Amino acid sequence: MGLSNFGKRIVFTLLLVVSVVVLPAYCQVNTGQLASLMLKEIRVERAVSEEAKACIECHLNQNFGLVADWAQGRHAHANVSCIDCHSAGAADKDISTGHLDYSEVKISAIVSPKDCSRCHPSEAAEYSRSKHANTLEIIWKIDPWLNHGMNVA
User: Fold this and answer.
1) pTM of this structure
2) Residue 27: what are its φ and ψ, rounded to 5°?
3) What is the pLDDT of residues 10-24, one digit of tens each?
4) Rounded CA Rg of the chain
5) What are phi and psi of 87, to 5 degrees?
């Protein structure tokens, strides 16, 4: 036996109330909770150093594209500047000698995982355990063209 017309109206009304009132409220609460779990807000409260400002001003004139890329990135929004990632210590082997023609600031043009590990130690450790960290070594071992120096003109 089926529902009477009155019973069908009650079921329809209940479904309507659930879909119009209860379900959106439930989704809004859960969406808010989900968004708070998914979004990781990073805030670094500090100023950019005078040395970093000098880097930015010089590169605005010399390499505008580099500054534009940096300015749109997460590091810029957290006031992490060029010098924070590219600074090199006296013992570093990858100091850019060409940069010393323009500035006394010792930098490395290439930011390595070692450099990133100063601020991101767990990410750098994870990367070091991946195949990506050893890609060049792996390629040299398995590619005879590279292994025998056939890429040299």
Assistant:
1) 0.55
2) -65, -40
3) 766 766 666 666 556
4) 28
5) -65, 145
Q: What is the 3-state secondary structure (H, E, C) of the chain?
A: CCCCHHHHHHHHHHHHHHHHHHHHHHHHHHHHHHHHHHCCCCCCCCCCCHHHHHHHHHHHHHCHHHHHHHHCCHHHHCCCCHHHHHECCCCCCCCCCCHHHCCCCCECCCCCHHHHCCCCHHHHHHHHCCHHHHHHHHHHHHCHHHHCCCCCC
Both tokens assigned to 107: 């930098």
End-to-end CA distance of the chain: 88
The Cα–Cα gap between 141 and 135 comes to: 10
Amino acid of residue 105: V
Closest CA to 51 of 95, 98, 94, 86: 86
- Residue spans of the domains in the chain: they are 1-39, 42-111, 113-153
The pair of three-digit structure tokens given for residue 28, joined into one six-digit string = 């809004």
Angle formed by the axes of helices 64-71 and 50-62, nearest 10°? 130
pLDDT digits (tens, 9 = 90+) for 137-148: 777 777 766 666
**Which token pair is 99?**
């940069």
